[in-house]
Amino acid sequence: MRASPGVVLSRSKLVALAAAVVVCVAPSFATAQSAPDIAAGTKVTFLEATYMPNSITLKIDAPFGACAAGTLLRYFPQGADAGAQALNIQAVFSLLLTAKVSNQRVILTGYSADCTAVRFVTLG
Fold it and tell me: I need a surface site. Which of 22, 59, 100, 102 has the fewest CB within 10 A?
């Protein structure tokens, strides 16, 4: 009997997997704000890295709270210090880029008080 080959991941799949792990296990920091109250399962239609490492600008194909599909949304890095925030924004950008080029859905979560600010990103 031949041994079955091991799982081989392409570089993009490995980056997506690493990004998903970082996003999932990164601690969420408590704020005075209540729990996020808007979410959208959607596809990324536009992704801009111009403002990194301070933020990621993106557009999606579905409404996000009061924001219509196609509205410019922003994700701001999260973390206890500059190093953690730099890793966070790289992981989230990798996840969003992987979702866009592979036509996969993401789940964005945020607050209805400011629908342009994305708080959490999940590959869904």
Answer: 102
Q: Look at residue 7 and tell me if it is in a domain.
A: no
Is 30 contained in some domain? Answer: no
pTM of the full structure: 0.72
pLDDT at 56: 97
Q: Would you say residue 96 lies in a domain?
A: yes
pLDDT at 22 over 50: no
Give the containing element (helix H, strand E) for 76: none
Burial zone of 73 (CB within 10 Å; 0-12 exposed, 13-18 middle, 19+ buried): buried
- Helix (H) / strand (E) element for 56: namely strand 56-60
CA separation (Å) from 24 to 27, 47, 58, 85? 8, 21, 20, 15
* CB proximity list for 10: less than 8 A, separation 6 or greater: none
The residue segments making up the domain with residue 112 are: 45-124
Alpha-carbon distance of 72 to 59, in angstroms, equals 5
Whether residue 86 is contained in a domain is answered as yes
